[in-house]
């Protein structure tokens, strides 16, 4: 069967469901009619299409003349730029509004209606606080020369005076912890079975033996699984430990997430899932974040923890040169402030661990040879020992004094790196405390040391086991003590990428590793968000209608919960990072894939109810789905038709192209009112050379050349395929390892503003290779470029010659851009990848990497499980208002068009075909939103919260920061801005907000804010959660 894709333009009304699309014979006639039609077709043809054709013509000419493929993307860029300059960039306004599709098309305003007050936020200059540290400045300052620091190899000699603690003793909090990766060398389930369950079981016994013992736990994914397997008696014992402060839950997320590749939607979701679990089962509210292993740290995570109501956080994996600098300045403890925060509302108290690792040798003080002797799991006769070849000794009456002197010396030296006399020392490592013996070894030996210290006042030390919040409590008391004004802590702004643990070992490869799964993650995210919103709306509608009629709410909620947890699990710092073993990667991939299928089921179930005109006709039959989300929609015979329901998961009215696959080329698309919709049938290519009636090939051969893919071998044969049409035109170029497609949409709307880029990459069969896409422009961007952090904020970057190549790569979660005084070029990405700008005007993005050997970071294997990976992007060129003497600033924001394009790229319209057996039931359009939300407000989620009383939902909104200095003419946007305010009564059209309460991000705390029952009010950049009841 020949497969054909059918792409057509759809105007999605508000959130949901234009019901359209019957498929008929006679497509060719439609297209012919369309182009000849006096009322719209000609204008369409003469307007944007001619520009498009012009571009493609020029492109072909260039290709033919120069025999250089590199021209094709540059040409598109130049063309776009010229058209921006002379004002031809946007669609011919109004040309479709009078066309034959009255219920589909709305004319976007020529100039985006932006409230001028909404432009002030991004126009603000950055002002550094008095005791402020800006990380971009630190990078300028440091030489990154890595001299040998002695026993503290990456630091310096630390000295102290014996009497420094005479007036105020050293307070030591030893914090036992066990780092449990939810998948790395083993799968989540295997780790649980072999290690984690034993750790938690022993914890209950061993903490109960002595009330002075403490423990912290972070990964709720493991904790929840264990909880399901223990009896009530043990659960009560755990609750007592929590109440007595012996066990502290830190962060409380489903996992300890990666902070480079993770999108803020998923970061929030996994935190919410963990916190909801804790609230329901343990009744605790985490106070302190604990992140010892993510490979670099993002201020986004600090912001999210702050919004969730946490007070403190700890980070560990920071570039060794930065650590050394912070240690020398005593800025390892600071208030982490968002770059964009003009005041102090985002300040988060943060502790940065000073040394190389979170294991015992690198946490008691600067000398690992000494500290290792206080890891009593390494006592002689055990399975682990000290690589410095001096083993620990059991503490006895005979040696206690000498051992205390040794340990106290380390404690005192470490303390010299901080401003207060309160010291935190972690005690743990990966999967520690599995056996009862280890608990005894650590806790009994340390208790002897502490007893000695505490009973000798001349030592001026008070040492104890503590949780991390015990420590922060003491720190706050000491630092905020009015008598200690000189101890005030500094304010730090910026991020901690790219991480290096030693020498030139920069951890930038994981920004790209296993890109197939990074893309799969983003697809699951958009499915989850789409399903959550539809399910919440369906549930509210059913409750309103008063008769559920067998709607599968329990089953759907179960599938949603499973998907939340699978997505959450994948945010783990060895999961989305691509740093696990092959079999673990397969386990994650299977979970992601199953959840995508299950979420389609949830969407189909929910949509079924919502679009049915006569709700009395509703019946749920699990074996015969009313709606289908198969890849190919089958039309059984000539003149048959099928209805397709389009779900717009975004919060704005939207004109976008939808792609569906059908089994015949003879198709026409109509609206539900029988008005034809512009559509284009094109071939689906099984491989580069399978012939098609709609496309032709240009064959190039001969000279070797280096294309903008960094393939360091000659490309011997290149296939080029051109598709032209009324809806879109594209050029596909096929190389040995890459199929590269450039696509232009001829639609009036956001999709028509950008060049779409798809790279299908296959480097199987290569050895130790990375494939990159390089965009070359004539922008005078110098050494500056910009990448986003977690899809939430923009971090300005600087390419530095003093750093090695791999250090100049940064994570690109959703976008990267270059700019000069007149133009900005933005690459929007539908997956996380590593990017850099190695030369002025250039932007490179790594597409895939294949490593034949281990990198000595514990994995014990290379990366050889590469898959054919499809990476998607959009390229935007925008005119910038000239600013003279533009100083480098730590602040930058995308344009509104860029924000919305990114939203569309990550959340495409979702087509569902109505089952052929559904008969003649009539369908209705469903538009839950009274109107588009303001352009700058994104509905992050509408997530059902199940409770015994009545189902509620968490409405999570984000007000984006955007730059008005980029041209907002002809953007195709169908929304406005309103200074961050939404009238709640005007939010939904056929549902009412029964109640709305501002709560913390994960619903654990009530919050005070600008919002009320009547009006939601968000500050720029703010993410806020509202507990809502829809009735
Ligand atoms: Zn880890």
UniProtKB/TrEMBL annotation:
Reactions the enzyme catalyzes: N(4)-{beta-D-GlcNAc-(1->2)-alpha-D-Man-(1->3)-[alpha-D-Man-(1->3)-[alpha-D-Man-(1->6)]-alpha-D-Man-(1->6)]-beta-D-Man-(1->4)-beta-D-GlcNAc-(1->4)-beta-D-GlcNAc}-L-asparaginyl-[protein] + 2 H2O = 2 alpha-D-mannopyranose + an N(4)-{beta-D-GlcNAc-(1->2)-alpha-D-Man-(1->3)-[alpha-D-Man-(1->6)]-beta-D-Man-(1->4)-beta-D-GlcNAc-(1->4)-beta-D-GlcNAc}-L-asparaginyl-[protein]
Can you say where in the cell this protein is located?
Golgi apparatus membrane
Q: How does it sit in the membrane?
A: Single-pass type II membrane protein
- Recite the UniProt keywords alphabetically: Coiled coil, Disulfide bond, Glycosidase, Golgi apparatus, Hydrolase, Membrane, Metal-binding, Signal-anchor, Transmembrane, Transmembrane helix, Zinc
- SUPFAM superfamilies recorded: Families 57/38 glycoside transferase middle domain, Galactose mutarotase-like, Glycoside hydrolase/deacetylase
BP-aspect Gene Ontology terms: mannose metabolic process; N-glycan processing
Per the record, the major location class is Golgi
Q: Which residues form a coiled coil?
A: 49-76
| Record-annotated Glycoside hydrolase family 38 central domain positions | 505-592
Question: What is the protein named?
Answer: Alpha-mannosidase
- Cofactor remark: Binds 1 zinc ion per subunit.
Primary role: Catalyzes the first committed step in the biosynthesis of complex N-glycans. It controls conversion of high mannose to complex N-glycans; the final hydrolytic step in the N-glycan maturation pathway.
Q: What is the lineage of its organism?
A: Eukaryota, Metazoa, Chordata, Craniata, Vertebrata
- Which cofactors are named for this entry? Zn(2+)
Kindly list the GO CC terms recorded for this protein: Golgi membrane
Q: Where are the transmembrane segments?
A: 7-27
Q: What is its EC number?
A: 3.2.1.-
This protein's pathway reads:
Protein modification; protein glycosylation
